[in-house]
Specification:
Layout: H1 6-14, H2 21-31, H3 33-36, H4 41-47, H5 52-61, H6 67-76, H7 80-85, H8 97-121, H9 123-135, E1 138-142, H10 145-150, H11 152-160, E2 164-168, H12 171-179, E3 186-191, H13 197-206, E4 212-217, H14 222-226, E5 229-232, H15 245-264
Helix pairs in contact: 8-15, 11-15, 12-13
């Protein structure tokens, strides 16, 4: 794995959640960089009031083999300070509420414009996806955090249309479904950053199976290389803050348009 990416992967796994086990582990790593390299796993678990298995599970999700690798990376790549400095949610350029609101509305409007432009420029991809949705007996959607919640309305609408569709965010269940995919089914992988380690691992396992794999991704990268086709989510929200709420809304709108195109042609 690329050492400079593991903190970013942790941030994506945690998302905007607070008070969760993963959030406690993540904050303990960020706030105790100088201590961790000298701690045992048991000592670190006491520091973040979390069990050792929960810590290992979180580290594995982040692409690390375990606590020893985390200690090695912190000792040899002191990057958590840089990431901690980037934890400010709102960009420093906004010195007043009015300037923030102006930028917020500007980016919100631009997301709608970009969705229209991207739907037009990616019409061939969209038509192919619609065809696969209609043809597939079962549709699988694998996503986490905000991407998962952004997909729930689409799930409900498709089920109302009597289509077999499975939406999953749990690592163990994703692995289970991935190992028993039926021939010719459709799998949609969503990562708002385009770097989610679980989605990357899942795409690696699925790419050589006889299924159609479609990605809804934040960037072109390792995941996009594993899928049959993909649709990109603009990253202009980064100009405002370190959050994914507008990108979540973009996914919801994309699925709304996609659903209308599906029912227009009838399932």
């Amino acid at each position: 794995m690329q050492n400079e990416k593991y903190i970013l992967k942790m941030k994506e796994i945690v998302g905007n959640e607070t008070g969760t086990i993963n959030h406690s582990i993540y904050m303990a790593i960020i706030n105790n960089e100088n201590k961790i390299k000298d701690l045992t796993l048991l000592e670190f678990s006491k520091l973040c009031n979390t069990s050792k298995p929960s810590i290992i599970k979180f580290l594995n999700k982040s692409g690390l083999s375990g606590f020893a690798e985390l200690k090695y990376l912190i000792k040899n790549h002191s990057i958590t300070k840089q990431v901690k400095n980037e934890e400010l949610v709102i960009s420093k350029e906004f010195d007043s509420l009015n300037s923030f609101q102006k930028k917020y509305l500007e980016i919100s409007i631009n997301y709608i414009k970009l969705l229209e432009q991207n739907l037009i420029s990616n019409m061939t991809k969209i038509n192919e996806l619609v065809s696969k949705i209609k043809e597939s007996k079962t549709i699988y959607i694998f996503a986490q955090n905000l991407a998962y919640y952004a997909s729930r309305n689409f799930l409900q609408k498709m089920r109302m249309s009597k289509k077999e569709i499975i939406l999953e965010n749990d690592l163990n269940l994703i692995e289970g479904y991935s190992s028993q995919l039926e021939q010719g089914c459709l799998v949609i992988i969503i990562s708002l950053s385009g770097m989610n380690p679980i989605m990357l691992s899942t795409s690696e396992k699925i790419k050589n199976k006889d299924v159609y794999l479609f990605g809804i991704l934040g960037i072109e990268g390792a995941i996009s290389q594993n899928v049959d086709n993909y649709f990109l989510v603009p990253q202009i929200e980064d100009e405002l803050w370190d959050s994914y709420s507008m990108r979540q809304s973009y996914i919801i709108k994309f699925f709304d348009v996609l659903y209308f195109q599906i029912i227009e042609g009838k399932l």
